[in-house]
Amino acid sequence: MKKIAVFASGSGSNFQAIVDAIDQGELAAKVELLVCDKPNAYVVERAQKAGVDVLTFQAKEFSSKEAYEREIAEKLAEKEIEWIVLAGFMRLIGTVLLTKYQNRIINIHPSLLPAFPGKDAIGQAIDYGVKIFGVTVHYVDEGMDTGAIISQQVFECEDEMTRDAIEEQIHKIEHQLYPSTLQMLFTAGAKDPSLQQK
Ligand code: GAR
């Protein structure tokens, strides 16, 4: 049973999917902590309902990324967190956490990386006019959505699909792909991402 911390900034539908997969016995993990940089985000309410401890912070109240990551790292150590799972956490992870959790920080991104990294990946893909959309789960490194890829799932966009419909389909894929990929990682053990091709 892996002890995990989920980091999120928004509505937290992926946080919920992880909690639900654990409840349904599909993911052998325990969410020990939610770390959130937006104290009013809906994910905080979800965590409270699920009985998960919450650590909120505001980056602007700290002198640097190192300063707030040191505080987060202390809390993670106190709770003996083994893996960090980013679920819509809209900040780059810095050296403090990357060093302590080498190859044990995972992210989900709503595009087929390396296409459309960064913010509003779905909007970027729509503006580009792509026909194939998808989701990527990957290891986190110091870059923006650049770590080694663990799993991907595609879907083909029908011509008449609205942005809402595309987003809904992406979320549906994410809510399956993230828990199942985490389960695969936790049961198979972490592979060294430097051995994988980018
Ligand atoms: C998800 O679509 C996730 O892939 C994306 O934020 C959304 C969060 O939704 N993450 C990124 O874009 C990271 N670069 P949620 O709050 O409902 O889980």
Automatic annotation (TrEMBL):
<feature type="binding site">
    <location>
        <begin position="90"/>
        <end position="93"/>
    </location>
    <ligand>
        <name>(6R)-10-formyltetrahydrofolate</name>
    </ligand>
</feature>
<comment type="similarity">
    <text>Belongs to the GART family.</text>
</comment>
<keyword id="KW-0808">Transferase</keyword>
<dbReference type="Pfam" id="PF00551">
    <property type="entry name" value="Formyl_trans_N"/>
</dbReference>
<dbReference type="GO" id="GO:0006189">
    <property type="term" value="P:'de novo' IMP biosynthetic process"/>
</dbReference>
<protein>
    <recommendedName>
        <fullName>Phosphoribosylglycinamide formyltransferase</fullName>
        <ecNumber>2.1.2.2</ecNumber>
    </recommendedName>
</protein>
<feature type="binding site">
    <location>
        <begin position="12"/>
        <end position="14"/>
    </location>
    <ligand>
        <name>N(1)-(5-phospho-beta-D-ribosyl)glycinamide</name>
    </ligand>
</feature>
<keyword id="KW-0658">Purine biosynthesis</keyword>
<dbReference type="GO" id="GO:0005829">
    <property type="term" value="C:cytosol"/>
</dbReference>
<dbReference type="GO" id="GO:0004644">
    <property type="term" value="F:phosphoribosylglycinamide formyltransferase activity"/>
</dbReference>
<comment type="function">
    <text>Catalyzes the transfer of a formyl group from 10-formyltetrahydrofolate to 5-phospho-ribosyl-glycinamide (GAR), producing 5-phospho-ribosyl-N-formylglycinamide (FGAR) and tetrahydrofolate.</text>
</comment>
<feature type="active site" description="Proton donor">
    <location>
        <position position="109"/>
    </location>
</feature>
<feature type="site" description="Raises pKa of active site His">
    <location>
        <position position="145"/>
    </location>
</feature>
<feature type="binding site">
    <location>
        <position position="107"/>
    </location>
    <ligand>
        <name>(6R)-10-formyltetrahydrofolate</name>
    </ligand>
</feature>
<dbReference type="InterPro" id="IPR036477">
    <property type="entry name" value="Formyl_transf_N_sf"/>
</dbReference>
<feature type="domain" description="Formyl transferase N-terminal">
    <location>
        <begin position="2"/>
        <end position="182"/>
    </location>
</feature>
<comment type="pathway">
    <text>Purine metabolism; IMP biosynthesis via de novo pathway; N(2)-formyl-N(1)-(5-phospho-D-ribosyl)glycinamide from N(1)-(5-phospho-D-ribosyl)glycinamide (10-formyl THF route): step 1/1.</text>
</comment>
<feature type="binding site">
    <location>
        <position position="65"/>
    </location>
    <ligand>
        <name>(6R)-10-formyltetrahydrofolate</name>
    </ligand>
</feature>
<dbReference type="InterPro" id="IPR004607">
    <property type="entry name" value="GART"/>
</dbReference>
<dbReference type="InterPro" id="IPR002376">
    <property type="entry name" value="Formyl_transf_N"/>
</dbReference>
